[in-house]
């Protein structure tokens, strides 16, 4: 059990990193929908890798205090009364409580409101863009494809925010309750009740990340094509054709947004 304290550290590390990555993806969607011109010119692979490294660094930084809080101690196994070693995190110092409040705010409250603001802005941008397309596009097929994609984006973003809130909240409530409630209340749960409560919160937290591919699959035809190609259910030629069509639509979307931007700038100077 020399490295037992690494377990809560790694658990928090991956939970924090998954939330930060979701925030990064949210910002990427915001720039792609609301600021496509800036997205095409600034969002490159190298910048994405730097952002990913920073996210993991921040997640690790906020998880390090758990190494100090957690400790290995001896306990009695409830079935055969044998002596075992367990890793526990007792919250009793002032900075322990401050740390619990800090990670609750940084990795739940702030991300939730940031995602809510970002996706509200995206939905407003999508609705505004749909109105522009209806008024100015002469191609019926482009209008139909664009409007369908915009509706899919709105639906997917709404589901992602709801899933994030419902799946992340239980574990945060459990951690808060364990930190601030009286020890007698926790002891009254018994071992089985305690473990059921902890694992219920953990399962919901992990479900937040595990369910995202299913959400993308339900709303994104591009994701479904790529997933089927990985499984060998689609031929390379079909997958290449799908990617070409997606690039064609993206290029058309870029040109359309550029024309709108230029027109808006001209109207401002008139």
From TrEMBL:
It is a multi-pass membrane protein. Its main location: membrane. It is found in: Membrane. PANTHER family: G-PROTEIN COUPLED RECEPTOR (PTHR24243), THYROTROPIN-RELEASING HORMONE RECEPTOR (PTHR24243:SF233). InterPro entries: GPCR_Rhodpsn, GPCR_Rhodpsn_7TM. PROSITE patterns: G_PROTEIN_RECEP_F1_2. It comes from Mizuhopecten yessoensis. The keyword Membrane applies. This is Neuromedin-U receptor 2. The chain crosses the membrane at residues 6-28, 49-72, 97-119, 153-180. GO terms for molecular function: G protein-coupled receptor activity. Keywords: G-protein coupled receptor, Membrane, Receptor, Transducer, Transmembrane, Transmembrane helix. Residues 1-216 form the G-protein coupled receptors family 1 profile domain. Pfam families: 7tm_1. GO terms for cellular component: plasma membrane.
